Amino acid sequence: MTRDDERSRGDAGWRMADLAREPLSRPSAAEQSSPVTDEPPENIVVIGSGGHGREIAEVCLAVARAEPGRVHLVGVIDDGPRAGDLARLISAGIAYLGTVAAWPWSSYACSFVVGVSDPTARRRIANSLVAHSRPATLVHPDATLGSQVALGPGCVVFAGARLSTTVRLGAHVHLYHNVTVGSDAVVDDFTTVCSAATVGSGTHTGAGVMVGAGAVVLDQRRVGDGSTVAAAACVVGDVPPDTVVTGVPATARSPKHSLRATS
Question: The domain 138-252 is classified under which CATH number: 3.40.1360.10, 2.160.10.10, 3.40.120.10, 3.40.640.10?
Answer without folding.
Answer: 2.160.10.10
